[in-house]
Amino acid sequence: MITTDFVPGSPCWVDLGAPDVDAAAAFYSAVFGWRTEPGGGQDTGGYIAFRLDGKVVGAVGPLTEAGSRSAWMIYFNTADAEATVKAVQQAGGAVRSAPVEVPADEGRFAQLTDPQGAQFAVWEPNQYAGIELADSPGSLSWVELYTTDSAAAQRFYGSIFGWTTQDMPLPGGGGTYTLLTPAGTGEERMHGGLMEVPADPASGTGPYWHPVFGSADCDATVALVRENGGGVSMGPETAEGVGRMAVCTDPAGAEFVVLTPEAAR
């Protein structure tokens, strides 16, 4: 369960790099009912926040890295961005952007890559903690990593964040799904999972993280995805013990998951 009382290693922010910020904002507003900060794009280099019921649920901005594709970025809380960057380097990861100060003393972030190639980021809060709404319809409720080496990924993120893990066999012999929990917390703070998938050089994508957004009605949300130019690569389907879900893409190809939890159905 993702909450907004963040602890080290828990997801605390999510943003989208988009080739057309206005088009992305229009798509997600139609799908989830998000609204953008008034005038935000005029003063922040095109980086604007998404709000739902007046609370910030994430942001969108222009692509900033050469050769990058449109994708969602997951940020994990850290008490010390510099120390986390050093730990990433020592564990075989890469630093795409060293810690950067955000104006108004909001905090610092760094952009990183794990040894298998999945990109992620960390946020060291100061005046701003992170997302203001989580684990409810239209907000971040889970994060997932698709990796080509589950064991290596578990070692890497365990050394960086101290996550505890729990393996869960997938139905029908579909492999193993590893549940992730911040260090020193109980299962009620479980925030995501990782799964090993085969390498697919032909697709042009490697291991990656994606967000899972809650929905009161997965099928209705998926219909809105399709109506507004997005795609659906899996589902909607019901996963026993989890809920009704679908893997979707926005019109620029950024992947996200829609989930109606079993308890909410």
Spatial shape: globular
Biggest β-sheet: strands ordered side by side in the sheet = 2-3-4-1-5-8-7-6
How would a crystallographer describe the biggest sheet? 8 strands, mixed
SS class: alpha+beta
What is the string of helix and strand elements?
A: EHEHEEEHEEEEHEEEEHEEE
Task: Describe what this molecule looks like in 3D.
This protein has 265 residues and is α+β, with helices and mostly antiparallel strands. The protein contains five helices and 16 strands. The strands form two sheets. Strands 2-3-4-1-5-8-7-6 form an eight-stranded mixed β-sheet, with helices on one face. An eight-stranded mixed β-sheet has the order 10-11-12-9-13-16-15-14. The two termini are 17 Å apart.
Could you give a short description of this structure?
With 265 residues, this protein is of the alpha+beta class. It is built from 5 helices and 16 strands.
Question: Which SSEs are present, and which pair or pack?
Answer:
Elements: E1 11-18, H1 21-32, E2 35-36, H2 40-43, E3 48-52, E4 55-62, E5 71-77, H3 81-90, E6 94-102, E7 107-113, E8 119-125, E9 140-147, H4 150-161, E10 164-169, E11 176-181, E12 192-196, E13 208-214, H5 218-227, E14 231-239, E15 243-249, E16 255-261
Helix pairs in contact: 1-5
Defining key terms:
single chain, 265 residues, alpha+beta, 8-stranded mixed beta sheet, 5 helices, 18% helix
